[in-house]
């Protein structure tokens, strides 16, 4: 072999390497039509095989040993076979790119080129048996026979048909696609034509490799565009889900401007676009205010869906005028029925009798409430815990009473508050939360929640939020305040 042939072998080796890398990228990509992925993948694999086979044909040319004898014949046959297969795969990929709206018009083209490629492959096999395309001399060197032009003509006819149809549908392609598809359709024709007169450098292989890599770039660009579009779609849907979830929670404060007997404020900050924490408060009747603080297991969309179901059942049961114990029991029965996800929700629930300040409560596996008596400081109230809602059937929940007097405050929260983590993986903790509340215990309920939020932010700083942050504060002002 001369120097130019060594250079060509090196080129084919690198071409095969790049095709394999491109194939790995294609196989790892998601979001594009699987059929497109299949055909561009087959095209890249076939091109890599073509380059390796052509390289082996050069390396073993003139080797009269047994290995050289078989390698030269297998490699040359594989090179010609890959030429037909690549035309078939490229046709299917380009026609698929035209979309379903052109599926009827592309079918005759795909069928025609499939027939042409099939005929070419059959003749190639017959040629190997009867030897009318090419042969090998005593030195195990490949040379062409007089019928070699038939194989070239078959491939050129197929490429010309594909080129004509591509030009016919020219308007639907983007600029880079036009360059890639035409390069695949035109450059191999030029390479095949010149190949009939030159031997030593496989111009057809050079042309088809360059074209295949251009088509890979088109595929990757389409993949990138589809991924961006998919992310935008998901972002839009999540933004809408966030808006829907936010609208389901009380978010206008003060919520009951005409009721001076109490003041209430709540806030939530999900770790993701949507979360499983929720709070709620609503009047059961003119004298009874229901307050709920809950935390669904898990995060994200599954937790948000379970949260909406839980909130709906809790509110529906509460509006029937049942006791706190009955409300939680019925909610548990509803959530455990056919609960195949294994999700559950912790709930603290209280019904405040506004005229007397009596707060009837029950705790289903939730965090302890925090209470401040008038003129005093906030302290954790260690109530009796029941089992989580949705975790086990036939659970009964015990309720208890807290007497609120004028100026008393109640602070509720989810575990995302004490379990907030900084970059050193240290937890915020309940003690810090109590200290933040007691910095200004006499301030209004909104400021109290904001003080805790600010203190948490100062603690975690730039660390990623691990869990949803939800809190609620109630101040009882007494029946006479109205």
Task: Describe the protein's architecture and organization.
- This protein is an alpha+beta fold and 482 residues long.
- The protein folds into two domains: 3-232, Rhopdopsin 7-helix transmembrane proteins, CATH 1.20.1070; 249-481, Phosphatase 2c, domain 1.
- Helix content is 53%, strand content 15%.
- It is built from eleven helices and 13 strands.
- It has helices at 3-28, 34-59, 66-97, 103-130, 148-168, 175-195, 203-248, 300-318, 324-336, 429-437, 445-460, and strands at 134-136, 142-144, 262-269, 277-285, 288-296, 345-353, 358-364, 370-372, 378-380, 385-386, 400-403, 409-413, 469-476.
- Strands 4, 5, 6, 7, 10 and 11 form a six-stranded mixed beta sheet that branches.
- Helix 10 crosses helix 11 (445-460).
- The model has no long low-confidence stretch (mean pLDDT 86).
Task: Name some characteristics of this structure.
single chain; 13 strands; Rhopdopsin 7-helix transmembrane proteins; Phosphatase 2c, domain 1; five-stranded antiparallel β-sheet; 11 helices; 15% strand; 482 residues
